[in-house]
Write a structure and sequence with these properties.
The protein is mostly beta strands. About 10% of the residues lie in helices and about 35% in strands. A hairpin with a 4-residue loop joins strand 1 and strand 2. The radius of gyration is 13 Å and the shape is globular.
């Protein structure tokens, strides 16, 4: 599935070679970069070529996707 998915802000993907889940947080087409955020909060900037080389699978939102977000209360997500 290498190069099969376009990066879409807010979508979740699994990097199959490293078994890492992440969300696309920004796509900058002008400079050709994709910013991704892993469940542990780390952010990585990839260039478009790197993105296209990754073996990805589109996934559902992980159960504990809020891990890297500090200072939020359960009500902030729209449910109790």
């Amino acid at each position: 599935m290498i190069g099969e998915f376009d990066p879409i802000e807010g979508n979740w993907y699994c990097r199959l070679d490293k078994e890492e889940d992440f969300m696309v947080v920004d796509v900058n087409e002008k400079v050709g970069t994709v910013d991704i955020q892993y469940l542990d909060g780390d952010i990585e900037e990839l260039d478009t070529e790197e993105w296209n080389e990754m073996d990805l699978e589109e996934i559902e939102v992980p159960a504990d996707w809020s891990g890297p977000l500090d200072g939020l209360e359960p009500g902030d997500f729209g449910y109790e």
